[in-house]
């Protein structure tokens, strides 16, 4: 019952950017994905979400392969991703954005989930009718996270979660993640604030130029930050 | 919403003003004739423009091959008429063919271009238009033909001009399509999916919108409209593939007036363009360049609605 | 100023064409290359606007019509030399380019493209209604009988020399664009392409530089139209239909918009290929089908245009040897 | 010194900035606030991208009458929340794009560019196309554009968004150098409170378009209102 | 088979072929290839029947696709690269206006068969067997005045100066010369809307409408007239484009007995010996799918006159373009039952040998001759008639 990535290689313009990466996201656990700029974290997240062609390797959810499946199929398998860079449907309103993100839900479920999202982000509830493209950077990030949560995912991949978010919101999000984890959601978290990431992560994977250069428990890193610094360099 | 209503109002007012200017000092009976005649042509512009906008709002593709597809449909229907097929069968087969063609493009070709910029997507449909047009022109060598519908024989008199039932059908169909599409896009979930898809295909895929299904429906609807439009053009304009194919260019002007979005404005703009074009006949100098009307009006309207608006953040 | 490899190859190519093309080609093919050359020059205007500013003009061929019209008008009305007429044609079209730039100040992307298409549609009607001057009386200068003679440049009265003249003009046109690209306008255009906010934040006077770009594209269209008029001695409205402007843009996308090779490919596809089809007596309708299919295929499979593919190919071959 | 007087911005019916007044006297100041508070809007108003009521001045030079590109020529520099450098130009050309439009002599322009490259130590980047840069290198380029040509106001909108800790630290160092390199007054938006408290002497806090605090950074961050609205320290609510 | 061609000696031609060129237009708006097809059939027949002084004709045909540049390229290929001695059977909407100066410059004659624009009739080195829109419109107008009692004609033309203004202008001057009224309405071929043109014609106060449009546009125009039920309110005539076999059926019952069309040459089924010979040549040498229409007749006629001229030349001169041109220019008084008047060329700045025609009526899904050969009148023809007098043809 895990989201597992085996020996994954992903290329961009003929250049391998993610090289032979293996990792596991387990239900009820948070895996933090760390690494310097350009290490290939975002590419990896997109590849799992079905947005990049996988060169070699495999991805599977609970034993079922989803390698090179369409993003929609991936989502049907319970995997939802928040890509980097506040990506929202710019010409639609906030409410329409969230409703569209619930395309796979039944009508009643949709209404209910929508309510939950607005409870999580009362900021969004204040501007339901605003066109998403005119929102502030942080508001768009909330909306992008809302997109993923609308799927009621079993596995949640978040790239640069706190990008552009006020500390207050980050705290709230961390709480939400903890709740979700309690409900046995598996989380893959890319986060530039290492502290935040380590505070909730169970295991950590560090990428360096596309390769896994460290993989271990978060506990260890929390105790010995030197290991992490070593991995980065 | 208020903004849109205002736009609609301004566009209408501008066009009425122009008509009044052109009609000034002419006997009202003559003016009436030209107005009715213009409405008849204008409804064709509207219909063409609506077909473009519906697909654009649903997929983000401005389909320049609408005309070519429609032309093939009506040529086929004509051929079947010659072979004495039952009338209804000829229309159904004609429209079914256009739907199929639209689906072929939408399912097989359009996805390969999904990430290109909208202009390239539009230009690519020109390639498809050339293919369809070439096939049509090859299959039906240049000859004198006429496509008739039973509704041509029934007519009503309006302000002194006889209007056939076919022309009324065009106007009513345009209105019906506008209302139906508006309801569909704004009230149904598939409609919302379409708008999401048109906005950004990547994000839509990521948030789980069933792309294949949604696009199939959108292209199917657009093929149906293109087929119907083709039949009407074939009957009311000319049964010549090239003429029908390139009717898409003036139809774009109606679509532009509605900013490729506002179907109500497209409808009204199309009608107004038709009326103005018709009334230009009354102007001694401008009458020789009457067909410029759609283009000039589109430019003026778009520049008007974009006036004062500088979007500093537009870009890629 | 430093020359890139691509520029060196381009100049060499132009030199070869200049020397041998007129010698090797017969009367028919010289004529074909003359009009190909004119459209290459015009396409270069569309290409730099698209590649550098991200702006699409679907009115370039219509603008050529204006240049051609002015050229003919000047030729039949005054006894001035070819070059002066050409300069006037370029200048007048440049002004029309500015007019097209007016909507561009507020719009971009598809809207802008469609506005230019509407302008092309309007011009198509004017051209087909009033025709091109052929030596008649009055402003429009149209008479029912055979056109009055057209004066070619003194150095290029016969077709072969005229082809050389055009190749020279293309090189000059490309150099003008290249000089722009390497200087302030090129950088300003790149910022505009990124976003207007970025351009303003760089101190770029967006209105001015957009108008400049449209003016330059218009100038190139105008001169190429004038040169085209010189090729035939007269012009026909059918050449300048709005759909031709779309076609030129499409072929520019197929050829590739970044660099001379793409533009040359676009010109060749636009004029040489149909001529070949015609020469092989392929039915015009079938030619349309082939052309459409090839267009679609190229747009889908070669996102950087055929020139991009060619360069990749030679790059690989070059590495291997 | 930058002074904002009764700065008000409306979008349709919504008031995004409500009569904000602040006089930034320090050479580097911060603007913080919850998401959607109006921070970016403030910068956009100062850049002239929005219609606003109120007045903006630097050392008593009013700039309200200038349009956006004139403001840049006058001495306003800024970076954007989403970086906005031209992908198809080299880093050098991205820098030159600014000096092109400044009323400087050829030599002065070259000197300015060289100085910026040197002080940010980005010599190895100058001939790289911007699309091959990583996020951090793009931010450096952005910063380079901001210190070029004797700026009077420099504004950075979330310069450290998406950067790793060490990169943020380094960028912070560079930002601290701005006052020594130029006479500019610098404004920074960021959600990284550590960064703000390290580099900004003075901070403005916005919430729902209103000024809720302004003053010395440490004091402002200790303000219960700020803690409640921004930092999310719930206990103080009582 | 008993088709009669050229020397008609039943011997296959041999030796070095004589190159003859032609340009036709076949693309978007219409197919003008019927004339070259017919000329080609005739040349094939000639090549099997003694050729030109025993030598075969090599007929080189190019399509201009209605594209002026292609037209110029085609002419360059034929005239310069292939060095044809003459152009025979040209039939196009654009070719003549583009290439007329070039033909003159190169001293080559074009014995065209399908001229449409004024430049074609008003140039020194082109002569056409067909009448073009001007002459046939004037013929239609004469019929409207003389038989249908028209006093005020509205001529519906294309908004192309060298076609619409030119031909409808001639109708107007004809009417004025008779003390009657006429006006014209020009229709932009790009316009989808033909209704307004109809309304404009009505508003002009005309009592007769002369449709001078290409067939497709004419059909569209007549459909809106039918929509308004104007068939009996006006008398209706048309220039030649409507004389096409499929027109009566397309127009339908409504127009039966109401529409009169001016035909440039004899009817397709004309009983004259030459017309029958044309049909035989077509049957024997042309593709069965090639049209048998007025243009095919014109193409046949041009080809026949050309062969006749060449065979009358000294055999040593037939490769000499200048002498061939001179011989063609010397043609005078050739007769055929296909054409109402004599065919001639002459040295002149304009050529329009065919300016007499017949009128057919659309009735019961077919055409019926209602008026046989008659000479067209009007100011436009005066200089032509004068020229004919000096040639001794009158
Ligand atoms: N279109 C492209 N062509 C070539 N290389 C690319 C392209 N897009 C991204 N890359 C490269 O791929 C590598 C991985 O990028 P990715 O965005 O996955 O990194 P990341 O670890 O998420 O970094 P960051 O912290 O900046 O988000 C980078 O070196 C980047 O330069
Ligand atoms: N064009 C617009 N139309 C309507 N509302 C807008 C527009 N632009 C911004 N807003 C609203 O104005 C408010 C202020 O936005 P601003 O971008 O200044 O926020 P911010 O403080 O920069 O937030 P963040 O930290 O998330 O970037 C937000 O509520 C935003 O939704
Ligand atoms: C006919 C098409 C294949 C191309 C274009 N219309 C041209 O004339 O070149
Ligand atoms: Mg990343
Ligand atoms: Mg912001």
From TrEMBL, chain A:
Check the record and name the SMART domains matching this protein.
AAA
Q: Which UniProt keywords apply?
A: Amino-acid transport, ATP-binding, Nucleotide-binding, Transport
Single annotated GO MF: ATP binding
Q: Does the keyword Nucleotide-binding apply?
A: yes
Q: CDD domains this protein is in? A: ABC_TM1139_LivF_branched
ABC transporter domain: from which residue to which, for each copy?
3-233
Gene3D superfamilies the record matches: P-loop containing nucleotide triphosphate hydrolases
Q: Which family does it belong to?
A: Belongs to the ABC transporter superfamily.
State the protein's name: Branched-chain amino acid ABC transporter ATP-binding protein
* Species, as recorded: Marinobacterium zhoushanense
TrEMBL record, chain B:
Identify its membrane topology class.
Multi-pass membrane protein
- Spell out where the chain crosses the membrane: 7-24, 30-56, 63-82, 88-110, 122-140, 160-185, 216-233, 239-256, 263-282, 288-305
| A Pfam family matched in the record | BPD_transp_2
Query: Where can this protein be found?
Result: Cell inner membrane
InterPro entries given in the database record:
ABC_transp_permease, BCAA_transport_permease
Alphabetized UniProt keyword annotations: Amino-acid transport, Cell membrane, Membrane, Transmembrane, Transmembrane helix, Transport
Q: What domain of life does the native source organism fall in?
A: Bacteria
Coiled-coil ranges (or none): none
**Does the record's keyword annotation contain Transport?**
yes
Q: Which PANTHER family match?
A: AMINO ACID ABC TRANSPORTER PERMEASE PROTEIN, BRANCHED-CHAIN AMINO ACID TRANSPORT SYSTEM PERMEASE PROTEIN LIVH
Please report which protein family the annotation says this sequence is part of. Answer: Belongs to the binding-protein-dependent transport system permease family. LivHM subfamily.
Tell me what this protein is called: Branched-chain amino acid ABC transporter permease
UniProtKB/TrEMBL annotation, chain C:
Q: Name one Pfam family in it.
A: BPD_transp_2
Q: Which organism is it from?
A: Marinobacterium zhoushanense
Chain coiled-coil ranges: none
What is the recorded name of this protein?
A: Branched-chain amino acid ABC transporter permease
Q: Where in the cell is it found?
A: Cell inner membrane
Question: In which domain of life is the source organism classified?
Answer: Bacteria
Alphabetized, the UniProt keywords read:
Cell membrane, Membrane, Transmembrane, Transmembrane helix
Q: Cross-referenced CDD domains, in alphabetical order?
A: TM_PBP1_LivM_like
Membrane-spanning intervals of the chain: 49-72, 84-104, 110-130, 162-181, 211-235, 247-270, 286-306
UniProt membrane topology term: Multi-pass membrane protein
UniProtKB/TrEMBL annotation, chain D:
Task: Note the SMART domains from the entry.
Answer: AAA
Range of residues in the leader sequence: none
**From what superkingdom does this record's organism come?**
Bacteria
PANTHER family tied to this protein: CONSERVED COMPONENT OF ABC TRANSPORTER FOR NATURAL AMINO ACIDS-RELATED
Report domain ABC transporter positions.
2-233
What is the official name of this protein in its record? ABC transporter ATP-binding protein
Q: What lineage is on file?
A: Bacteria, Pseudomonadati, Pseudomonadota, Gammaproteobacteria, Oceanospirillales
Q: What Gene Ontology terms describe what this protein does at the molecular function level? A: ATP binding
* UniProt entry keywords in alphabetical sequence: ATP-binding, Nucleotide-binding, Transport
What InterPro entries is this protein classified in? AAA+_ATPase, ABC_AA/LPS_Transport, ABC_transporter-like_ATP-bd, P-loop_NTPase
């Amino acid at each position: 019952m895990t989201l597992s990535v085996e020996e994954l290689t992903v290329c961009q313009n003929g250049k391998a950017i993610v090289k032979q990466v293996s990792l596991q996201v387990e239900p009820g656990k948070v895996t933090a994905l760390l690494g310097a700029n350009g290490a290939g974290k975002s590419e990896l997240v997109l590849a799992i979400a079905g947005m990049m062609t996988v060169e070699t390797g495999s991805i599977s959810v609970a034993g079922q392969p989803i390698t090179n499946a369409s993003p929609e199929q991936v989502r049907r398998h319970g995997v939802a991703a928040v890509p980097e860079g506040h990506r929202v449907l710019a010409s639609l309103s906030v409410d329409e954005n969230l409703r569209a993100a619930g395309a796979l839900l039944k009508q009643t479920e949709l209404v209910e989930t929508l309510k939950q999202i607005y409870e999580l982000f009362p900021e969004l509830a204040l501007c339901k009718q605003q066109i998403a493209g005119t929102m502030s950077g942080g508001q768009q990030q909330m909306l992008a996270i809302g997109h993923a949560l609308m799927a009621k995912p079993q596995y949640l991949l978040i790239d640069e979660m706190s990008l552009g978010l006020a500390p207050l919101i980050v705290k709230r999000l961390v709480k939400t993640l903890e709740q979700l984890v309690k409900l046995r959601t598996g989380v893959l978290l890319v986060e530039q604030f290492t502290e935040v990431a380590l505070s909730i992560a169970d295991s950590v994977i560090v990428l360096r130029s596309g390769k896994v250069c460290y993989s271990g428990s978060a506990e260890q890193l929390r105790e010995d930050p030197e290991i992490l610094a070593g991995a980065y360099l | 919403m208020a903004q849109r209503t205002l736009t609609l109002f301004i566009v209408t007012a501008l066009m009425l003003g122009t008509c009044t200017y052109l009609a000034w000092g002419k006997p009202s009976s003559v003016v009436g004739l030209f107005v009715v005649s213009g409405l008849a042509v204008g409804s064709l512009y509207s219909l063409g423009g609506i077909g473009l906008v519906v697909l654009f709002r649903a997929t983000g593709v401005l389909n320049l091959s609408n005309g070519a597809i429609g032309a093939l449909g009506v040529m086929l229907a004509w051929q079947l008429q010659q072979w004495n097929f039952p009338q209804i069968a000829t229309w159904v087969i004609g429209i079914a063919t256009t739907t199929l063609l639209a689906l072929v493009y939408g399912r097989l070709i359009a996805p390969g271009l999904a990430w290109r910029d909208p202009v390239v997507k539009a230009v690519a449909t020109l390639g498809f238009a050339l293919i369809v047009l070439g096939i049509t022109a090859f299959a039906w060598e240049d000859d004198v033909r006429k496509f008739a519908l039973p509704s041509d024989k029934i007519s009503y008199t309006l302000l002194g001009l006889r209007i056939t039932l076919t022309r009324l059908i065009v106007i009513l169909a345009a209105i019906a399509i506008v209302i139906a599409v508006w309801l569909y896009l704004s009230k149904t979930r598939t409609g919302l999916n379409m708008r999401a898809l048109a906005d950004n295909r990547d994000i839509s895929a990521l948030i789980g919108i069933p792309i294949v299904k949604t696009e199939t429906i959108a292209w199917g609807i657009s093929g149906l409209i293109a087929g119907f439009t083709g039949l009407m053009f074939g009957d009311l304009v000319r049964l010549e593939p090239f003429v029908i194919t390139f009717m898409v260019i003036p139809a774009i002007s109606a679509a532009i007036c509605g900013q490729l979005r506002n179907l109500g404005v497209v409808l009204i703009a199309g009608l107004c363009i038709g009326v103005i074009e018709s009334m230009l006949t009354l102007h001694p100098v401008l009458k020789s360049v009457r067909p410029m009307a759609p283009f000039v009006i589109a430019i003026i309207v778009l520049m008007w609605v974009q006036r004062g608006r500088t979007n500093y953040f537009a870009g890629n | 100023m430093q020359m890139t490899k691509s520029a060196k190859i381009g100049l060499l190519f132009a030199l070869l064409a200049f020397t041998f093309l007129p010698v090797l080609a017969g009367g028919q093919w010289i004529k074909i290359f003359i009009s190909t050359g004119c459209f290459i020059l015009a396409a270069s205007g569309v290409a730099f606007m698209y590649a550098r500013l991200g702006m699409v003009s679907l009115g370039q061929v219509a603008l050529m019509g204006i240049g051609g019209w002015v050229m003919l008008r000047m030729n039949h009305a005054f006894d001035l030399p070819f070059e002066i007429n050409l300069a006037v044609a370029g200048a007048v079209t440049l002004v029309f380019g500015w007019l097209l730039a007016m909507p561009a100040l507020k719009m971009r992307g598809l809207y802008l493209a469609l506005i230019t298409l509407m302008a092309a549609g309007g011009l198509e009607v004017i051209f087909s209604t009033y025709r091109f001057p052929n030596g008649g009386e009055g402003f429009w200068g149209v008479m029912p009988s055979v056109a009055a003679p057209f004066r070619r440049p003194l150095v290029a009265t016969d077709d072969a020399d005229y082809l050389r003249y055009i190749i020279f003009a293309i090189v000059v046109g490309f150099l003008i664009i290249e000089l722009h690209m390497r200087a302030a306008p090129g950088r300003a255009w790149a910022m505009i392409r990124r976003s207007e906010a970025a351009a303003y934040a760089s101190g770029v006077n967006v209105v001015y530089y957009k108008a400049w770009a449209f003016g330059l594209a218009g100038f190139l269209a105008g001169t190429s139209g004038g040169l085209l008029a010189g090729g035939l001695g007269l012009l026909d409205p059918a050449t300048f239909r709005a759909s031709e402007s779309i076609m030129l843009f499409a072929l520019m996308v197929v050829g590739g918009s970044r660099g001379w090779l793409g533009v040359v490919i676009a010109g060749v596809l636009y004029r040489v290929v149909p001529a070949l089809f015609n020469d092989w007596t392929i039915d015009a309708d079938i030619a349309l089908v082939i052309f459409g299919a090839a267009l679609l295929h190229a747009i889908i499979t070669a996102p950087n245009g055929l020139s991009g593919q060619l360069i990749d190919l030679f790059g690989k071959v070059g590495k291997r040897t | 010194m930058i002074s904002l007087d009764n700065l008000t911005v409306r979008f349709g019916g919504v008031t995004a900035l409500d009569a904000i007044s602040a006089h930034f006297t320090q050479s580097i100041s911060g603007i913080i606030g919850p998401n959607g508070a109006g921070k970016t809007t403030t910068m956009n108003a100062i850049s002239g991208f929005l219609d606003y009521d109120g007045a903006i001045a630097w050392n008593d030079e009013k700039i309200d009458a200038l349009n956006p590109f004139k403001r840049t020529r006058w001495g306003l520099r800024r970076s954007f929340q989403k970086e906005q450098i031209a992908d198809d130009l080299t880093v050098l050309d991205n820098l030159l794009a600014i000096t092109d439009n400044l009323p400087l002599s050829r030599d002065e322009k070259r000197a300015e560019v060289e100085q910026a490259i040197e002080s940010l130590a980005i010599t190895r980047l100058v001939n790289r196309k911007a699309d091959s840069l990583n996020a951090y290198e793009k931010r450096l380029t952005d910063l380079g554009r901001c210190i070029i040509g004797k700026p009077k106001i420099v504004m950075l909108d979330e310069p450290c968004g998406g950067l790793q800790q060490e990169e943020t630290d380094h960028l912070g160092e560079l930002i601290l150098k701005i006052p020594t390199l130029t006479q500019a007054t610098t404004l920074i938006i960021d959600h990284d409170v550590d960064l703000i408290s390290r580099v900004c002497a003075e901070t403005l806090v916005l919430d729902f378009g209103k000024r809720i605090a302004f003053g010395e950074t440490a004091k402002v961050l200790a303000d219960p209102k700020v803690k409640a609205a921004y930092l999310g320290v719930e206990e103080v609510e009582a | 088979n008993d088709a009669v061609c050229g020397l008609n000696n039943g011997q296959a031609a041999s030796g070095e072929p004589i190159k003859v060129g032609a340009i036709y237009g076949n693309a978007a708006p219409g197919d003008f290839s019927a004339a070259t097809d017919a000329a080609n059939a005739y040349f094939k027949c000639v090549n099997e029947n003694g050729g030109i002084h025993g030598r075969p004709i090599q007929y080189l045909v190019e399509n201009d696709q209605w594209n002026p540049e292609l037209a110029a390229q085609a002419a360059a290929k034929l005239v310069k690269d292939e060095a044809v001695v003459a152009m025979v059977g040209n039939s196009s909407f654009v070719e003549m206006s583009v290439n007329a100066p070039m033909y003159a410059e190169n001293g080559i004659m074009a014995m065209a068969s399908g001229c449409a624009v004024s430049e074609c009739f008003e140039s020194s080195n082109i002569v056409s067997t067909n009448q073009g829109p001007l002459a046939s419109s004037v013929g239609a107008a004469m019929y409207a005045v003389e038989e249908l009692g028209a006093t005020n004609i509205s001529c519906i033309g294309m908004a192309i100066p060298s076609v619409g203004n030119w031909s409808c202008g001639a109708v107007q001057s004809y009417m004025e010369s008779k003390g009657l009224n006429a006006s014209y309405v020009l229709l932009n071929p790009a316009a989808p809307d033909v209704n307004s043109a109809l309304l404009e014609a009505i508003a002009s106060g005309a009592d007769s409408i002369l449709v001078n449009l290409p067939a497709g546009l004419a059909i569209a125009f007549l459909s809106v007239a039918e929509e308004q039920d104007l068939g009996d309110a006006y008398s209706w005539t048309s220039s030649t484009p409507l004389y096409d076999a499929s027109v009566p059926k397309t127009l339908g019952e409504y127009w039966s007995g109401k529409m009169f069309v001016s035909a440039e040459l004899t009817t397709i089924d004309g009983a004259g010996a030459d017309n029958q010979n044309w049909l035989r040549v077509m049957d024997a040498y042309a593709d069965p799918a090639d049209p048998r229409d007025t243009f095919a007749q014109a193409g046949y006629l041009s080809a026949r006159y050309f062969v006749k001229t060449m065979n009358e030349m000294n055999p040593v001169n037939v490769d000499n373009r200048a002498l061939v041109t001179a011989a063609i220019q010397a043609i005078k008084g050739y007769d055929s039952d296909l054409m109402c008047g004599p065919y001639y060329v002459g040295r002149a700045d304009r050529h329009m040998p065919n300016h007499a025609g017949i009128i057919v009526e659309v009735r019961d899904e077919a055409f019926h001759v209602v008026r046989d050969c008659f000479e067209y009148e009007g100011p436009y023809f005066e200089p032509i008639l004068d020229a004919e007098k000096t040639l001794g043809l009158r």
